[in-house]
Amino acid sequence: MANEIWVVIERTAHGDMAGVSKELLGKARELADANGMKVGALILGAGIGDLAQVAFSYGADTAYVVDDGALAQYTTDGYVGTAAALAKKYQPALILTGAGFQMRDFSAALAAELDTGVAADSTNVMIENGTVSAVRSSHGGNVINTLTFAPGRTAVVSVRKQSFPEPQANPDRSGAAVTENLPGVPMRAKVVSVAPKQGAVNLSDAAIIVSGGRGLGSPENYYKLIPPLAEAVGGAYGASRAIVDAGWVPYEHQVGQTGKTVSPKLYMAIGISGAIQHLAGMRSSRTIVAINKDPDAPIFRVATYGVVGDANEIVPLLTEEIKKRTG
Ligand code: FAD
């Protein structure tokens, strides 16, 4: 087993390095420094040359690059097959990925290919005396588990974004770029074209989310209060399942166990009781603000700041005040 921690680099729609990959490079650097290890960035795609330098600036020592048209779009066969071939060749001790929908697919399939385990959707990762462990929640966020990997095999850990701070980039840092050819992996699926979803809501990428629930009383009230506040704070708007099921808001806005898992910097829950299934999707948010007229609502148990009162009175005042202050 090589003394190396790999970070699988993800890109934004514009081709830049995704924030979660920078966060993971920072964490990998910290773990590597504490354990006498090295950091490798695994960069797969087409036309991705300059990402290696970006990876060095965020802490990578080595960039393993496979730049091939066949990897222009994510496919399980292409990405997992390539990553597995390289991991078998270089034997990293740990592979870190984000935990968005593509990387959930990737990390599980990669672990299967490497005949190892995966700690999915983790919020922390540790290495002690060469043993890798990861922290993740289960049972709707009510149980926190620490999973420990058996030594001698590559550990695969997918990590929720914003679990770690984004490090400061150092453009003067450099490293070694190792260019590899696409291994002969079967490509059963071919992406013919990609069309952006009409009116798609990117809750998973939003740094601020304002969510509303049944306490708002009606869809008219939801749209009167929630999107304007979301716009004032520069965020996306979400919803509890109760109001998605009631047809007030489309499913892509739903946060929770059967909706999106989010961990923004700021999550505002307005007229949401805080059922465990809702908490499962948002309790790792950095700051949680709850507005609810019931002081005993369970949402207050996870809230950083709680406001007990009527959303109909508080939200318009809050929106106005924020607009005034942000000009
Ligand atoms: P309620 O529980 O009815 O809460 C409304 C809240 O609004 C109350 O706390 C009330 O005090 C407050 N309120 C009322 N009037 C006002 C006012 N004027 N001002 C301020 N506050 C007010 N739920 C999800 O959200 N996401 C999921 O993914 C999800 N998945 C589920 C999966 C399963 C298998 C199951 C069984 C359930 C799931 N649920 C999910 C449903 C979940 O259990 C709750 O029923 C749901 O979250 C409740 O939504 P709510 O908080 O909007 O409504």
Structure commentary:
It is a single chain. This protein has 327 residues and is of the alpha/beta class. The chain contains nine helices and 15 strands. A seven-stranded parallel sheet has the order 5-9-4-1-2-3-10, sandwiched between helices. A five-stranded parallel sheet has the order 12-11-13-14-15. The protein has a three-stranded antiparallel sheet with strand order 6-7-8, with no helix packed on it. Helix 5 (219-233) packs parallel to helix 9 (311-326). The mean pLDDT is 93. Bound molecules: flavin-adenine dinucleotide.
Index terms:
alpha/beta; Rossmann fold; seven-stranded parallel sheet; 9 helices; elongated; binds flavin-adenine dinucleotide
Brief rundown of the structure:
By secondary structure, the protein is an alpha/beta fold.
Give the C-level CATH assignment of the largest domain: Alpha Beta
Distance between the termini: 56 Å
Tell me the domain tally. 2
Q: What order do the helices and strands follow? A: EHEHEHEHEEEEEEEHEHEHEHEH
Oligomer: single chain
Backbone shape: elongated
Describe the main β-sheet briefly: 7 strands, parallel
Cofactor: FAD
Keywords: Electron transport, FAD, Flavoprotein, Transport
InterPro entries: DHS-like_NAD/FAD-binding_dom, ETF_a/b_N, ETF_a/FixB, ETF_alpha_N, ETF_asu_C, ETF_asu_C_CS, Rossmann-like_a/b/a_fold
Binding site for FAD: 214, 240-241, 254-258, 271-278, 292
